[in-house]
Amino acid sequence: MRNRVWLQRYAVDKPGQCAREVLAEQLLWLIQLRWIAAVGLVIAALVGSYVFPVLISPVPIYVCAGVLLLCNILYYLVATKKGAGVGLKDIVLGMVQVEVDLVILTVALHFSGGVVNPFFLFYIFHVIIAAIILPRNLSYSVGLTTILLFGLLAVNELNGGGWLGYYPLKLSAVDGLWRNPVYALGIFVAFACTVVLAQYLMRIIIVRMTAKHRSLEKDLRDRAEQITAINERLKMTRVQMAHREKMVAIGQMAAGIAHEIGNPLASLSSVVQYLCRKLSTHEEKEQLLLIEHQVDRISGILKHMLSLSRPATGEYKWTDINELTDNTLSLVKFDKRMQSITIKNVINSDLPMVWLNPQRFEQVFLNIFINAMDAMDARGNEQEHVLEITREFKDAMVEIRIRDTGVGMSPQVAKRAFESFFTTKEIGKGTGLGLFISYNLVSEIDGTIRLESEPDNGTVVIIRIPIRPQKNLIATGDGRMDFAVSSVTTVKADDKAIENF
Question: Per DSSP, which regions of 255-326 are E strands?
Answer without folding.
Answer: 317-319
